[in-house]
Hints:
This protein has helices at residues 11-24, 36-45, 62-68, 87-95, 108-155, 162-172, 200-211, 244-257, 275-290, 319-330, 335-351, 360-377, 386-398, 403-443, 450-456, 461-472, 476-494, 499-505, 511-522, 526-538; strands at residues 3-7, 29-33, 50-54, 77-82, 100-103, 179-187, 218-225, 231-238, 262-268, 301-303, 309-310, 357-358. The chain is an alpha/beta fold. It folds into four domains: 3-128, Rossmann fold; 162-306, 2-Layer Sandwich (Alpha-Beta Plaits), CATH 3.30.70.100; 319-422; 444-538, Homeodomain-like (Arc Repressor Mutant, subunit A, Orthogonal Bundle). The strands form three sheets. The protein has a five-stranded parallel sheet, with helices on both faces. Strands 7-8-6-9-10 form a five-stranded mixed sheet, with helices on both faces. The protein has a two-stranded parallel sheet with strand order 11-12. β7 and β8 form a beta hairpin. α2 (36-45) runs parallel beside α3 (62-68). The mean pLDDT is 82. Residues 3-119 form the Response regulatory domain. It comes from Paenibacillus algorifonticola. Keywords: DNA-binding, Phosphoprotein, Transcription, Transcription regulation.
Amino acid sequence: MYNILLVDDEPGHLAGLSKMLQKLRPQYAISTARNGKEALSKCREQPFQLIISDIQMPLMNGLDFLEQLPPSNQPQKFIYLSGYDYFDYAQKAIGLGTFDYLLKPVDQEKFALVLEKAERSLKTEQEAQLENSRLAVKLNTIAPLYRSRVMKEWLHNQALSKAESKELEELLGFGGPGILLLTEIRLNSRATSQPEERLLPRIQQELEACLAPSGGAISSIPLHEAEGGRTGRLITVTNASISAQQLQAIQQKIQQAVPSFYQITIGVSRQEEDVLASASQMYVEAGLALSESFYDEVQTVFHAWQTKVSAELTIKPDARHEAMLHEAVVHGQEQGQLRLTAGELLHKLLGEAGSGLPRPERLTLSVQKLLARLSESLTMPEHQTVEEWGLRMERALGEADSLGALQTVIAEQLGLLASAHAEAKREHKEQLIYKCIAYIDEHYMDDLSLESVAAVFHFNASYFSQYFKSKLNINFSQYVTQVRLTKARQLLESSNDKIYQVAGSLGYHDVKYFNRVFKKEFGLTPEEYRSIARHMKRS
């Protein structure tokens, strides 16, 4: 549906034209005006896609109206009405950009043809405008991505073509000396609030606004933003002269602009004389400086020229460190004590590194290797494999964003290992009794003794006796006797062996002793039991 404005100072013509238009296009919204001035006022209130106006009118004629008509951001068509006496005016109107004109009195058939022509033209222009809008949106989406790709390749020291190098200088807005800032936003590991999406563009805008008064060119790109808005990094290159005090003030201002559960830190490279040639080195320097925030949770701006973190420094954990952790786990230390053990481990690892600090990821990797070796040396429950625990441990260590957080994670992992080890020992004891029973059932005919069976399972005889009775509520000798007598009943019922033969097959070398034991248990001698059992079977 189109909005249409009819302009004519003759009421009869205006009413007739409105009626004709309603008949031809009942869906159109029709407005009217009696002169150019009134029509101009209405055009300022709402947009019209089609304007049909007379030329000769009081107060403001149609030509002046067209000249003063403000430009529209939507396709618009202007049709003039003219008498034969004003044909020269109509020609002038065409020169001003009028779409078409009609001679008075207006013929309905001709009017319909002009309407159709105007509608086709409006539709074509609207489609073109829509396509241009889509292209503009696509360009606005693609251009930052392309700009980001070029700058990332530059920062990672990848070769750029001459065209890309030239474009890069245009993107930066400068060449020559400058510094690189690496700003990191990280959700506090103790935060309970939900992270905000798309926070990095806000940080970029705030940082550039803070740097602007310092003068010079500024160029920033978001390096990455983790899913869910938990962390993000922003690279800024500038040739502005900024002091350490100014950078600290800028960090504080940005910190105040974000939710309190986010932490803003900034790594600063050394100033280089040729930013375009030294970008990769500057990026590494700023990143190395920024990594010191892992060790120092108070400072927020870190300079490359004074950082303690060394890219070359390595950590070499050895058997001493593993033994310390093994002792803590096996002895089942409480969580508070485990935290102290974790702190002692980190202190030793860092102390042996000298005066410098290793990259946080290298320290974390060393701890990961230590815990992995420790888990392999321990007995784990059957339902949990070392590989499964290792994956969970690696994920937990990777989320530690500070030395304190790493200490907490180590203590938690030691606690989990201690619990798993204790559970495995319990499982082993539970399974051991079944193995003992199976062994007795298989060797009941042998000369079994408490000492001989305890030795098979590497137990002290006294401990084995207590363990056996605690699990079965019967002592070892009684259980062996029960097994043998149960088997004796089966043999007496099913075989024709002599009593002494039955006794011998059960491990009883003295048939009289066998007879006494059997009668004590069942109140019958073996011979009497056999006779009664067979009689009952025949009956």
